[in-house]
């Protein structure tokens, strides 16, 4: 009996996996491979963002030092949402030239967004603007930014315009300080910033257009405004139309929330759109309002 059953057992042992088992293995491998691919793409996008921002910050710092060394001027300017140029002396010959740089693939300014003004360093390594901010996003929606203060300080994902709070202690000239180092007087050093990114002040003047070819007229007020990061303050844009009613939709970078996103405005009426910052990304961005025959843009500056 054992001899008779043995060939049957051997054939069953050599039969291998069935179709069902094979399909299960293939499905498991596909799922694991998909998650691994997604993770690799996210990591690659994050590295591309950090590499681009760090390289830009390094080039800005080099341009500043070059202006001081040559006792001249240097410039860093974004020429497109994903490219910038640097005007400085690269080879030490004393003659500045312009070189163009591309950000890594998938890294760019949030859209829609205007190009930031150029950074011009003078012979002291200073700029005219209080704080220049370059904010970038990658394909994952992650953000990173470079700040350049008026003194030429360059930081990545930092706040150069915010000074720490300093407390002053009363010192005894007889026990804490050598008598020869005491300077008479009662004036306290002014530790405030020499310029401010304050959100105070009125917004930009209204902008208007339309009224030709059967298109409704429109007015957006104000044309520019400032809000604080992380929902610190909320800005309001009043949009009015005339001639006929219009469906108006708003488009903004992913770091801004516009409420409502779409609404119908009757002829001769006005409606408000609220704009709020969703995260800590600072900079100057554009909100586009789309209505028949026109797409006006309102500039929104996000500050501390």
Give a summary of the structure in a few sentences.
The chain is of the alpha+beta class and 304 residues long. 21% of the residues lie in helices and 32% in strands.
Describe the structure.
The chain has a 5-stranded antiparallel beta sheet, with no helix packed on it. It has a 5-stranded mixed beta sheet with strand order 10-17-16-12-14, with no helix packed on it. It has 2 helices and 17 strands. 21% of the residues lie in helices and 32% in strands. The chain folds into 2 domains: 40-156, minor pseudopilin epsh fold; 207-303, Immunoglobulins (Immunoglobulin-like, Sandwich).
List keywords for this structure.
304 residues, 2 helices, minor pseudopilin epsh fold, single chain, alpha+beta
Annotate the secondary structure layout.
Layout lengths: L1 H12 L5 H52 L3 E7 L2 E6 L8 E6 L16 E3 L9 E7 L5 E7 L4 E3 L50 E3 L7 E5 L2 E5 L5 E9 L3 E6 L4 E4 L2 E4 L4 E8 L5 E8 L6 E7 L1
Parallel strand pairs: 10-17
Antiparallel strand pairs: 1-2, 1-4, 2-3, 5-6, 6-7, 8-9, 9-11, 11-15, 12-14, 12-16, 13-15, 16-17
């Amino acid at each position: 009996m054992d001899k008779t059953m043995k060939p049957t057992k051997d054939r069953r042992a050599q039969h291998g996996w069935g179709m069902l088992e094979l399909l299960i293995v293939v499905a498991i491998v596909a799922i694991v491979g998909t998650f691994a691919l997604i993770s690799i793409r996210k990591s690659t996008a994050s590295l591309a963002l950090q590499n681009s921002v760090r390289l830009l910050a390094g080039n800005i710092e080099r341009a500043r030092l070059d202006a001081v060394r040559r006792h001249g001027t240097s410039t860093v300017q974004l020429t497109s949402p994903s490219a910038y140029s640097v005007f400085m002396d690269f080879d030490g010959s004393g003659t500045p030239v312009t070189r163009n740089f591309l950000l890594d693939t998938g890294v760019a300014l949030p859209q829609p967004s205007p190009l930031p003004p150029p950074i011009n360093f003078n012979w002291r390594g200073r700029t005219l603007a209080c704080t220049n901010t370059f904010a970038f996003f990658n394909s994952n929606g992650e953000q990173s930014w470079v700040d350049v203060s008026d003194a030429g300080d360059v930081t990545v994902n930092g706040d150069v315009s915010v000074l720490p709070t300093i407390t002053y202690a009363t010192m005894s000239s007889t026990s804490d300080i050598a008598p020869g180092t005491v300077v008479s007087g009662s004036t306290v050093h002014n530790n405030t910033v020499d310029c401010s990114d304050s959100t105070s002040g009125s917004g930009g003047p209204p902008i208007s257009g339309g009224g030709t070819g059967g298109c409704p007229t429109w007015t957006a007020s104000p044309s520019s405004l400032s809000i604080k990061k992380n929902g610190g303050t909320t800005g309001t844009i009043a949009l009015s139309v005339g001639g006929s009613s219009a469906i108006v939709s708003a488009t903004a970078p992913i770091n801004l929330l516009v409420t409502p996103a779409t609404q119908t405005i009757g002829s001769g009426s006005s409606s408000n759109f609220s704009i709020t910052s969703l995260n800590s990304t600072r900079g100057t961005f554009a909100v586009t309002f789309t209505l028949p025959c026109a797409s006006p843009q309102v500039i929104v500056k996000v500050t501390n």
